[in-house]
Amino acid sequence: MNPFDQIEEETKFLRIEGHGIDVTYEEGFLTLEEASSYFDRVYAEADWHRPQMTFGDGVVRETRRQVAWHADEGLTYEYSGQRHKWVGWTPSMLELREKLQTKMGIDFNGVLLNHYADGSDYVSAHSDDERDMEEGIPIVCLSLGAMRDFVFKHRELKTRHVLVLKSGSLVSMAGDTQKVATHTIPKRAAVVDPRISLTFRRAIRRG
């Protein structure tokens, strides 16, 4: 085990602050029944594709993980050299956006979706610090489906927190979290069920 790791106790609500990090975890934003229903609806409605990425060996190939970007009209999103053209909000995504807006008072204008077929699908360590993100607005991730570890690591202190994301839970990353820390969904061979993450954002409209 990494000596810097902090494995968080199972809890329904947790806030981690300090050294620029401001992360909040909340279990039960959706009930398990609601989360299961939304999983099926979102999976059926999303405009899934597999982007091409340059991997550590320098080879460009499609990711195993499926991705979709849904947003307000004309709002594109670019990261890791990939430019995602906008696709309009679907009925299920509009419902979830409204629930989040009611809870947080933020008018989210886009959502990035990731579909992990099983524990072999993952996201490597990164920060959501793209220039398209509106500064000062939290990035909020809703998890549906299989439980997966969410690991974030402070760039300078090397401390890591490991959260277990349950279906229907929220993780909010605010403050300078994206500047001082990275986060990842690591591989987990024991996970055989799929997961969908919906990461709601406030993006800047550029000309």
Share of residues in strands: 35-45%
Q: Low-confidence spans: pLDDT under 50, at least 5 residues? A: none
User: Using DSSP, what is the number of strands?
Assistant: 16
CATH superfamily: Alpha-ketoglutarate-dependent dioxygenase AlkB-like
Give the biggest beta sheet: 7 strands, antiparallel
CATH top level label: Mainly Beta
Approximate shape? globular
* CATH domain fold name: Jelly Rolls
Number of helices: 3
Helix share bin = 10-25%
How would you describe this structure in keywords?
globular, 207 residues, 3 helices
Structure description:
- The protein has one domain: Sandwich (Jelly Rolls).
- It contains three helices and 16 strands.
- The mean pLDDT is 89.
- The protein is globular, with a radius of gyration of 16 Å.
- It has helices at residues 32-45, 91-104, 177-180; strands spanning 5-7, 13-18, 21-26, 52-54, 60-62, 66-71, 77-79, 82-84, 110-116, 123-126, 139-145, 148-154, 160-165, 170-175, 181-185, 195-201.
- The strands form four sheets. Strands 2-3-14-11-16-9-6 form a seven-stranded antiparallel beta sheet. A five-stranded mixed beta sheet has the order 1-13-12-15-10. It has a two-stranded antiparallel sheet with strand order 4-5.
- By secondary structure, the chain is of the alpha+beta class.
- A hairpin with a 2-residue loop joins strand 2 (13-18) and strand 3.
